[in-house]
Amino acid sequence: MIKIGETLFLDIRKPGQEAQKFQCKVEDIREDHLLVTYPSNLRTNKSEFFMTGTKFYAHFTTKDKITYKFHTEMTDRKKEHIPLLILTFPGEKNLEKIQRREFVRVDTAIDIAIHPTDYQFQPFTAITSDVSAGGCAIILPEQHRLKEGMELKCWMVLPLKDQHRYVKQKAKVIRIIKGENGKRDKAPLQFMKITERDKQHMLRFCFEEQLMFKKKGLL
Asked: Which of 17, 58, 117, 145 is surrounded by the fewest CB atoms within 10 Å?
């Protein structure tokens, strides 16, 4: 299930404080522990130092797009070809599945370009109403030809703090939400084959947006 080379996401959650989010790579898997690269902060993109005994909430996503979570603790450091951390691992039988709705979703407007996979409709641009690492919802033009179950391609630019990141994904229309009282239709989209790199960019963007909302007192 978990494999060498897998990207592992780590959260540190303290009561009354904003969760800190990190990512690392699994370099080796032992019976009851993992050897991982030094975690980098998703917000700053810099590696950080951790004390022995630091506890994390960890999760990873398989090639089948199933996400699992578990609790872990840093027990030691090890120097091989690169410096590594040793984390406890409860075993695959004790991993817990994460439902897709558990991905952080933020209400935000991002320009997005929508293209057909074939010739079902003319390409158009739209604005998102919310985004997450698993998908997004878009506000549709008045005249559109999208239907539930339709597959499409989408391009968006994530305005991260350090630089803009371009995300290109194949997505599926979950449903069409009819607009009422003069409002436009909306379409929730589910990313079908999101790459690990794009997922990391999406998670980081959602984290930065949440942090900004909290600073402004909107959350």
From this structure: 17
Instruction: Measure CA of the first residue to CA of the last residue in the chain; give whole Å.
Output: 36
CB within 8 A of 204, min separation 6: which ones? 21, 42, 43, 45, 160
- Give CA separation, 136 vs 139, 154, 194, in Å: 10, 10, 12
Angstrom distance (rounded) from CA 161 to CA 166:
14
pLDDT band at residue 44 under the 50/70/90 scheme:
confident
Residue-range definition of the domain harbouring residue 171: 111-215
Return the bridge partners of 90, or none: none
- pLDDT, residue 102, reads 54
How many structural domains compose the chain? 2
Give the phi and the psi of residue 207 in degrees, each rounded to 5.
Answer: -65, -45
Q: What is the rounded distance in angstroms from the CA atom of residue 190 to the CA atom of residue 194? A: 10
Task: Return the structure tokens found at 165.
Answer: 């990141």
As a whole number of angstroms, the distance between CA 203 and CA 211 comes to 12
**Which amino acid would we find at residue 87?**
L
Please name every residue paired with 20 in a beta bridge, in sequence order, or none if there are none. 12
CA 136 to chain CA mean position, Å: 11
What is the tens place of the pLDDT at every residue in 81-112?
899 999 999 998 899 887 655 567 889 999 99
pTM for the full predicted model: 0.58
**CATH assignment of the domain containing 200:** 2.40.10.220
* Residue from 121, 175, 170, 172 nearest 148 by CA: 175
